[in-house]
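hiii so um. not sure if this is the right channel but i have a protein structure encoded as tokens and i wanna go backwards to a sequence. like what aa goes where. can anyone help
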């Protein structure tokens, strides 16, 4: 995914969280967003590792 598409996806999580008054639902949405951010970071690291290995 491109940086723009990731940013749009993460913004959608914020938008969803702001549309509910239930703090439990907000917490769940924020937890899913955090998971998405961590997954994106790990995939980015993995991608860089693969590229480095292929250049050897």
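sure thing!! here u go:
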């Amino acid at each position: 995914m491109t940086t723009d598409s990731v940013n749009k996806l993460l913004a959608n999580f914020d938008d969803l969280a702001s549309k509910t008054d239930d703090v439990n639902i907000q917490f769940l949405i924020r937890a899913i967003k955090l998971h998405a951010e961590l997954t994106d970071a790990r995939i980015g690291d993995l991608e860089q590792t693969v590229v480095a290995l292929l250049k050897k």
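oh and The chain has one domain: 3-55.
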